[in-house]
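Please fill in the sequence for the structure shown.

STRUCTURE ENCODING:
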């Protein structure tokens, strides 16, 4: 029997407290509280009282409990102090996983906290512009099996540029309309100007395809996720359907976004991953791998002081092999880049017993590929004659989503790197390239990977934070954002 301290709560007690209140009233209260948080919360405003009292990940847990466990027949309306109480209960939940040896390592504990909290710090221009730059601007260097502009239109409900404009409308509208979007508003005369840019049928198609479910649909998705990925002892870290559909369809037909911070993320390649697999299976993941490789290469090609070379096909013992995906050559450094589009699975994000295997299979394979390429490069194979051998070499594993703590505690079960190696999400690479428009990326990477510098154990975004300036802009994201409807209105977050 699991025991608890007097100040702790079981997860069932937390959900029981939330379900005391009227379901829709609780969602309204959560939304209002979420909208009161700093728009771009982060290191600089962690001391904000509202953020400390009700951080967005706790509010997301409250909203999930209301949707999955609540009902519309309760009369009690939550007050502000009730949300603070719910957050306190969530923060002091019994942690049964700590009594399970396979779940209580330092790696597992920190990985869970990172995946629970860090995604809510990702906001701004990248998440709005990335889908267009990623899907629409593929260079065509390799053919794709199922992904095209037409197939993506079928998947999301509109072409990617229009869909991104709709996401911008939904995100902005949620902020100024208390989290609501009412499809009936589209009949009002004051929406005529908006409909001239964003057709009504495409707004509704995108909303219905990607953004909104009713209560019953949320409950079914939650139940199905529990069957697909059972997480014994880890209820707190289980799938939250709001990450799949940020809007809840209320009984009167209006939509409400309990956690508006989730809206921009929904159209990103990361969040379309499972929708694409459901539609096209593994062919979609293969295409996504090519799109990620292509996108990473195009990002580094914007650097003014770098020359970028694609993968090399070479012979070894009469066998044809391929190198890593990209070689980025600076005057004083060579960077080897291997891209991996496999998304970190829910079980790995919850750090269950399979987490180490997920890290090893995805990141471990990339580490080995970096090592093989470095080995053949050092042997002066003729196929690599165009890659300089007279300067230091650094490796980067570029991933579709963040694999938190991959540069620190996860290294214990990854292959020993034969060169300084960083794991970096595509979002962090976008930030690095933005800085690289005015300051050499080779200088930055050399700094943070030098022996004894603890920054090489951080996420790349945190490691390069001190090198950034508010005016830094990522060229590919800027170009993509400029094509969106209303793209002349820049969001407040630099890219």
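FILLED IN BY: designer on duty
SEQUENCE:
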């Amino acid at each position: 029997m699991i025991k608890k301290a007097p100040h702790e709560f079981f997860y069932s007690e937390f959900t029981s407290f939330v379900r005391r209140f009227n379901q829709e009233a609780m969602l309204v209260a959560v939304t209002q509280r979420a909208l009161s948080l700093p728009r771009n919360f982060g290191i600089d405003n962690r001391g904000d009282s509202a953020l400390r009292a009700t951080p967005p990940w706790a509010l997301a847990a409250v909203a999930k409990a209301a949707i999955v466990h609540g009902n519309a027949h309760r009369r009690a309306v939550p007050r502000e102090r009730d949300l603070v109480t719910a957050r306190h209960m969530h923060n002091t939940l019994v942690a049964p996983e700590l009594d399970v040896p396979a779940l209580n390592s330092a790696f597992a504990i920190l990985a869970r906290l990172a995946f629970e909290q860090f995604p809510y710090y990702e906001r701004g221009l990248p998440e709005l512009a990335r889908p267009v730059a990623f899907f629409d601007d593929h260079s065509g260097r390799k053919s794709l099996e199922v992904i095209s502009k037409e197939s993506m239109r079928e998947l999301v409900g509109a072409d990617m540029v229009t869909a991104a404009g709709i996401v911008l409308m939904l995100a902005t509208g949620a902020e100024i309309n208390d989290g609501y979007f009412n499809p009936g508003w589209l009949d009002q005369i004051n929406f005529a100007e908006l409909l001239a840019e964003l057709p009504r049928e495409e707004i509704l198609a995108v909303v219905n395809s990607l953004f909104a479910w009713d209560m019953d649909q949320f409950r079914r998705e939650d139940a199905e996720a529990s069957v697909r990925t059972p997480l014994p002892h880890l209820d707190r870290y289980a799938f939250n359907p709001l990450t799949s559909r940020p809007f809840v369809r209320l009984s009167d037909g209006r939509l409400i976004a309990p956690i508006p911070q989730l809206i921009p993320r929904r159209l990103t390649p990361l969040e379309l991953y499972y929708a694409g697999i459901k539609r096209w299976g593994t062919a979609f993941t293969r295409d996504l791998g090519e799109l990620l490789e292509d996108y990473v290469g195009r990002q580094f090609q914007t650097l003014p002081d770098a020359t970028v070379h694609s993968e090399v096909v070479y012979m070894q013992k009469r066998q044809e092999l391929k190198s890593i995906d990209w070689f980025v050559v600076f005057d004083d450094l060579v960077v080897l880049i291997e891209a991996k589009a496999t998304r970190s699975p829910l079980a790995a994000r919850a750090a269950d017993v399979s987490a180490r295997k997920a890290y090893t299979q995805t990141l471990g394979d990339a580490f080995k590929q970096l090592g093989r390429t470095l080995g053949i490069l050092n042997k002066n194979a003729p196929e690599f004659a165009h890659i300089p051998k007279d300067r230091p070499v650094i490796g980067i594993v570029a991933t579709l989503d963040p694999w938190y703590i991959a540069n620190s505690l996860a290294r214990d079960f990854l292959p020993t790197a034969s060169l300084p190696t960083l794991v970096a999400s595509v979002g962090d690479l976008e930030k690095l390239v933005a800085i690289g428009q005015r300051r050499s990326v080779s200088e930055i990477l050399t700094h943070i990977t030098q022996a004894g510098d603890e920054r090489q154990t951080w996420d790349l975004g945190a490691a390069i934070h001190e090198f950034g300036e508010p005016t830094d802009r990522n060229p590919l994201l800027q170009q993509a954002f400029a094509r969106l409807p209303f793209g002349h209105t820049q969001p407040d977050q630099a890219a």
